[in-house]
Amino acid sequence: MAEKSADLRLEGVSKRFGEVRALDNVSLEVTSGELLTILGPSGSGKTTLLKVVAGFEVPDAGRVLVDGRDITALPPAKRDIGMVFQNYALFPHLTVARNVAFPLEMRNVGKTEINKRVGEALGLVELAGYEGRLPRQLSGGQQQRVALARAIVFNPRLLLLDEPFGALDRKLRETMQLEVRRLQRRLGLTTIFITHDQEEALVLSDRIAVMNQGAIQQIAGTTEIYERPATGFVADFVGESNILRGTVLPSGAVALEGGDEVRTGRDLPQGKKVGVLMRPERFSAEGYNKFTGEVVEAVYLGSSFKLRLKAGQRELLVRTPARGKLPQPGEQLTVGIEPDEIHVFDL
Q1: What is the pTM of this model?
Q2: CB 189, CB 182: distance < 8 Å
Q3: Which of 20, 123, 296, 347 could be bridged to 308 by S-S, CB 3.0 to 4.6 A?
């Protein structure tokens, strides 16, 4: 169905709204068939970026290219791009079949072909048999499936999804994430997915672009974004984290602000100021770099214990497997982390 799937390139795209710089010289590439997630907090510029790609916003500078063709000035209707929004944007007075058929009717496709394609699209999103229902007769997840079918029914070259599962409950959202990933892979459809939910980004993506204040902080695969964040913002935004600052000693260890030294798995220049990231789940009883402190808070999460540990002048967030008794506030606890489990980034 996605024989026209395209690659997308943004070159130096900037956009202002008054004094607010929504996009600041953004460049990125999405290869044909790839699912790229734009991840960032509210106001980071991710939705503006999507609107520029879709043609709903014209950039102040820069270019948007699809398969090497400059489409920056092209109107949305001429871009051959499918879109799915958080609020579904379905026509309440039209049936499921008519909602899905709408993009084809706008393209003057024949009735027989429309019926064929609508049936195929509804089959792909597992809504065969729902053709005659109205949106109000559907659940939120079913409405989102209709919106997805409408976005793919005309064989778009790109698919854009703007926080499409934000209105769904957690369990349904997780189900829809897997369904979108399955569908995207089956169609081989070049896709940009917008979210502020880092777990959603890790589940869905081939690569993730982390945005903040109109700029892309890092673009990388899911493992690299989590394991080797390029900046303090990425380290803090993606996953739970302990982020500390320190200075590299002549021995190669890092002296942390507030006391303690840690060995890392990297050769670092003496005197360099660095950020130190320790993921909560990487601590264990046997780790080389030891921290002893008082349990301030302990939460049982089924498969793990989530602990807040006051160690000297700092608090550490620690996750350990849920074995034995849950540590209680006031208890003394020693945890360790291996040098290779510590990530160091430039400040």
Answers
A1: 0.89
A2: no
A3: 296
